[in-house]
């Protein structure tokens, strides 16, 4: 076998293996679920097929006046799931901005497996661009 043919076969095999690993990683990520708690303590449960919004009521709000509105559940596409997952993952990977605990106005990301095993939690500062991007994306669903 010539060196060229051997390298060509190796590159093809490596490329196929890389594609398989990418597909396996994507399949694993599609099984992840998230809970996002916004700066007002409204909760968003996010899975690959659904987003559920659980707003805080006036009675439970710190001011006693704020209401997060009406709860809802919406079906989402794989493309929408990937978009919000990307925003959440971006915020989770930027550990330099993470707070040591939840503060008033901060955002919270909780990552779960499909079996409800919690794998990660992070707290985002009130004025971080990552928090704003996540909340902007989610709040579009309320309209």
- What is the approximate shape? globular
Mean of all residue-level pLDDT scores: 83
User: Main sheet?
Assistant: 6 strands, antiparallel
Element order: H for helix, E for strand: HEEEEHEEH
**Which blocks of ≥5 consecutive residues have pLDDT under 50?**
none
Instruction: Tell me the strand percentage band.
Output: 15-25%
Q: Given the helix and strand composition, which structural class is it?
A: alpha+beta
| Span between termini | 64 Å
Number of helices: 3
* Widest sheet: strand ordering: 4-3-2-1-5-6
**How many beta-strand runs?**
6
State the helicity in percent bands.
25-40%
Count up the domains.
2
Instruction: Please tell me how large the radius of gyration is.
Output: 20 Å
Task: Walk me through what this model shows.
- This protein is of the alpha+beta class.
- It has 3 helices and 6 strands; from the N terminus they run αββββαββα.
- A hairpin with a 5-residue loop joins strand 5 (107-112) and strand 6.
- It is globular, with a radius of gyration of 20 Å.
List keywords for this structure.
3 helices; 143 residues; 2 domains; six-stranded antiparallel sheet; 6 strands
Compile the SSE list and pairings.
Layout: H1 3-30, E1 33-37, E2 43-46, E3 50-54, E4 72-75, H2 78-93, E5 107-112, E6 118-124, H3 129-139
Antiparallel strand pairs: 1-2, 1-5, 2-3, 3-4, 5-6
A few lines on this structure:
The protein is α+β, with helices and mostly antiparallel strands and 143 residues long. The protein is 38% helix and 22% strand.
């Amino acid at each position: 076998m010539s060196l060229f043919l051997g390298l060509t076969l190796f590159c093809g095999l490596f490329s196929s293996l890389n594609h398989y690993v990418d597909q396996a990683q994507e399949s694993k990520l599609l099984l992840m679920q998230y809970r996002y708690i916004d700066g007002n303590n409204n909760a968003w449960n996010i899975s690959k097929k659904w987003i559920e919004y659980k707003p805080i009521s006036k009675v439970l709000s710190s001011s006693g006046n704020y209401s997060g509105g009406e709860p809802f559940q919406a079906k989402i596409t794989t493309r929408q799931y990937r978009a919000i997952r990307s925003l959440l993952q971006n915020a989770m990977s930027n550990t330099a901005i993470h707070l040591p605990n939840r503060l008033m106005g901060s955002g919270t990301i909780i990552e779960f497996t499909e079996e409800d095993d919690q794998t990660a939690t992070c707290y985002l500062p009130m004025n971080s661009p990552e928090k704003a991007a996540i909340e902007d994306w989610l709040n579009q669903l309320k309209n």
